[in-house]
Protein backbone atom coordinates (compact mmCIF):
# COMPACT_ATOMS: atom_id res chain seq x y z
CA UNK A 1 0.00 0.00 0.00
CA UNK A 2 1.26 3.47 -0.89
CA UNK A 3 2.02 5.26 2.38
CA UNK A 4 2.25 8.64 0.63
CA UNK A 5 -1.33 8.28 -0.46
CA UNK A 6 -2.39 7.80 3.15
CA UNK A 7 -0.98 11.18 4.10
CA UNK A 8 -2.45 13.01 1.13
CA UNK A 9 -5.75 11.56 2.23
CA UNK A 10 -5.24 12.38 5.91
CA UNK A 11 -7.05 15.72 5.61
CA UNK A 12 -9.90 14.05 3.74
CA UNK A 13 -9.97 11.28 6.35
CA UNK A 14 -10.10 13.91 9.09
CA UNK A 15 -13.06 15.65 7.40
CA UNK A 16 -14.95 12.36 7.00
CA UNK A 17 -14.32 11.29 10.60
CA UNK A 18 -15.43 14.72 11.74
CA UNK A 19 -18.75 14.32 9.88
CA UNK A 20 -19.22 10.83 11.34
CA UNK A 21 -18.53 11.98 14.91
CA UNK A 22 -20.79 15.01 14.57
CA UNK A 23 -23.77 12.66 14.35
CA UNK A 24 -22.81 11.39 17.81
CA UNK A 25 -22.37 14.90 19.26
CA UNK A 26 -18.60 15.27 18.85
CA UNK A 27 -16.16 17.16 16.70
CA UNK A 28 -12.72 16.05 15.67
CA UNK A 29 -10.19 18.70 16.71
CA UNK A 30 -7.16 16.82 15.42
CA UNK A 31 -6.16 13.49 13.91
CA UNK A 32 -2.61 12.16 14.06
CA UNK A 33 -1.32 8.93 12.62
CA UNK A 34 1.98 7.35 13.51
CA UNK A 35 3.15 4.51 11.29
CA UNK A 36 5.52 1.98 12.83
CA UNK A 37 7.23 -0.89 11.05
CA UNK A 38 4.28 -3.22 11.27
CA UNK A 39 1.51 -1.11 12.75
CA UNK A 40 -0.24 2.21 12.54
CA UNK A 41 -1.45 4.24 15.50
CA UNK A 42 -4.37 6.62 15.18
CA UNK A 43 -4.77 9.45 17.70
CA UNK A 44 -8.08 11.30 17.74
CA UNK A 45 -8.54 14.49 19.72
CA UNK A 46 -12.20 15.31 20.19
CA UNK A 47 -14.52 17.96 21.58
CA UNK A 48 -18.17 17.79 22.45
CA UNK A 49 -20.48 19.77 20.19
CA UNK A 50 -22.34 21.06 23.28
CA UNK A 51 -19.12 22.58 24.66
CA UNK A 52 -19.06 20.38 27.77
CA UNK A 53 -15.73 18.82 28.84
CA UNK A 54 -14.86 15.50 27.22
CA UNK A 55 -15.07 12.52 29.62
CA UNK A 56 -13.58 9.02 29.57
CA UNK A 57 -17.08 7.78 28.64
CA UNK A 58 -17.09 10.10 25.61
CA UNK A 59 -13.76 8.68 24.45
CA UNK A 60 -15.14 5.17 24.99
CA UNK A 61 -18.18 5.99 22.82
CA UNK A 62 -16.13 7.49 20.00
CA UNK A 63 -13.41 4.82 19.75
CA UNK A 64 -15.49 1.88 18.41
CA UNK A 65 -17.36 4.12 15.92
CA UNK A 66 -14.12 5.55 14.57
CA UNK A 67 -12.48 2.09 14.50
CA UNK A 68 -15.35 0.57 12.49
CA UNK A 69 -15.25 3.46 10.07
CA UNK A 70 -11.47 3.22 9.54
CA UNK A 71 -11.70 -0.58 9.17
CA UNK A 72 -14.35 -0.05 6.51
CA UNK A 73 -11.94 2.21 4.61
CA UNK A 74 -9.24 -0.44 4.86
CA UNK A 75 -6.78 1.78 6.76
CA UNK A 76 -7.24 0.14 10.17
CA UNK A 77 -6.40 -3.54 10.78
CA UNK A 78 -5.52 -5.88 13.66
CA UNK A 79 -2.02 -4.36 13.94
CA UNK A 80 -3.46 -0.84 14.29
CA UNK A 81 -4.12 0.91 17.58
CA UNK A 82 -6.30 3.86 18.50
CA UNK A 83 -6.18 6.50 21.21
CA UNK A 84 -9.03 8.92 21.75
CA UNK A 85 -8.59 11.94 23.99
CA UNK A 86 -9.82 15.42 24.73
CA UNK A 87 -8.61 18.27 22.50
CA UNK A 88 -7.31 19.82 25.72
CA UNK A 89 -6.80 23.37 26.96
CA UNK A 90 -4.02 23.98 24.44
CA UNK A 91 -6.00 22.42 21.58
CA UNK A 92 -4.80 22.65 18.02
CA UNK A 93 -6.65 25.15 15.80
CA UNK A 94 -6.92 23.98 12.20
CA UNK A 95 -10.25 24.73 10.60
CA UNK A 96 -12.21 27.89 9.97
CA UNK A 97 -14.68 26.87 12.68
CA UNK A 98 -11.81 26.61 15.20
CA UNK A 99 -10.62 30.13 14.42
CA UNK A 100 -14.23 31.36 14.50
CA UNK A 101 -14.84 29.81 17.90
CA UNK A 102 -11.64 31.19 19.44
CA UNK A 103 -11.71 34.66 17.88
CA UNK A 104 -10.47 37.08 20.55
CA UNK A 105 -8.59 34.31 22.39
CA UNK A 106 -4.86 34.16 22.87
CA UNK A 107 -3.23 31.72 20.50
CA UNK A 108 0.33 30.59 19.81
CA UNK A 109 1.34 30.22 16.18
CA UNK A 110 4.44 28.52 14.80
CA UNK A 111 5.07 29.51 11.19
CA UNK A 112 7.77 29.67 8.53
CA UNK A 113 9.20 32.99 7.41
CA UNK A 114 11.64 32.14 4.62
CA UNK A 115 14.06 29.60 6.11
CA UNK A 116 13.26 30.67 9.66
CA UNK A 117 10.72 29.09 11.96
CA UNK A 118 9.05 31.58 14.31
CA UNK A 119 6.60 31.20 17.18
CA UNK A 120 4.46 34.12 18.33
CA UNK A 121 1.56 34.52 20.72
CA UNK A 122 -1.19 37.05 20.45
CA UNK A 123 -4.91 37.57 20.39
CA UNK A 124 -6.60 36.16 17.30
CA UNK A 125 -8.24 39.36 16.08
CA UNK A 126 -9.40 38.13 12.66
CA UNK A 127 -8.82 35.47 10.03
CA UNK A 128 -9.60 34.61 6.42
CA UNK A 129 -8.93 31.49 4.36
CA UNK A 130 -5.52 33.02 3.59
CA UNK A 131 -4.51 34.90 6.77
CA UNK A 132 -4.45 34.81 10.56
CA UNK A 133 -4.26 38.25 12.18
CA UNK A 134 -2.86 38.49 15.72
CA UNK A 135 -2.92 41.56 17.94
CA UNK A 136 -0.55 41.95 20.87
CA UNK A 137 -1.49 40.32 24.17
CA UNK A 138 0.01 42.00 27.23
CA UNK A 139 3.62 40.93 27.76
CA UNK A 140 3.91 38.88 24.56
CA UNK A 141 6.33 41.15 22.75
CA UNK A 142 4.22 41.80 19.63
CA UNK A 143 4.39 45.52 18.97
CA UNK A 144 1.56 45.78 16.44
CA UNK A 145 -0.82 43.49 14.59
CA UNK A 146 0.77 40.61 12.73
CA UNK A 147 -0.70 38.96 9.64
CA UNK A 148 0.48 35.41 9.04
CA UNK A 149 -0.30 33.61 5.77
CA UNK A 150 -2.10 30.39 6.67
CA UNK A 151 -0.04 28.54 4.07
CA UNK A 152 3.05 29.23 6.23
CA UNK A 153 1.44 28.13 9.51
CA UNK A 154 2.92 24.90 10.86
CA UNK A 155 0.75 24.85 13.97
CA UNK A 156 -1.72 27.09 15.79
CA UNK A 157 -2.73 26.29 19.38
CA UNK A 158 -4.94 27.86 21.97
CA UNK A 159 -3.00 29.32 24.90
CA UNK A 160 -4.60 27.90 28.06
CA UNK A 161 -6.30 30.49 30.25
CA UNK A 162 -6.38 29.58 33.90
CA UNK A 163 -9.02 31.39 35.90
CA UNK A 164 -7.92 31.70 39.52
Can you tell me about this structure?
There is one protein chain. This protein has 164 residues and is an alpha+beta fold. It is built from 4 helices and 8 strands; from the N terminus they run H-H-E-E-H-E-H-E-E-E-E-E. The chain has helices at residues 3-8, 10-22, 56-73, 96-101, and strands at 26-35, 40-48, 81-86, 106-113, 116-127, 131-135, 146-149, 153-158. It has a 5-stranded antiparallel sheet with strand order 7-6-5-4-8. A 3-stranded mixed sheet has the order 1-2-3, with helices on one face. Strand 2, helix 3 (56-73) and strand 3 form a beta-alpha-beta unit. It is globular and about 50 Å long. It starts with a helix and ends in a 6-residue tail after the last strand.
Largest sheet report: 5 strands, antiparallel
Q: Low-confidence spans: pLDDT under 50, at least 5 residues?
A: none
H/I helix tally: 4
How would you state the average pLDDT, rounded?
89
DSSP helix fraction? 25-40%
Shape: globular
> Reading side by side through the largest sheet, how are the strands ordered?
7-6-5-4-8
Number of strands: 8
Rg from alpha-carbon coordinates: 17 Å
Order of helices and strands: HHEEHEHEEEEE
Tell me the β content.
35-45%
The rounded distance between the terminal residues' Cα atoms is 51 Å
Secondary structure class reads alpha+beta
Would you kindly provide a brief summary of this structure?
The chain is of the alpha+beta class and 164 residues long. 26% of the residues lie in helices and 37% in strands.
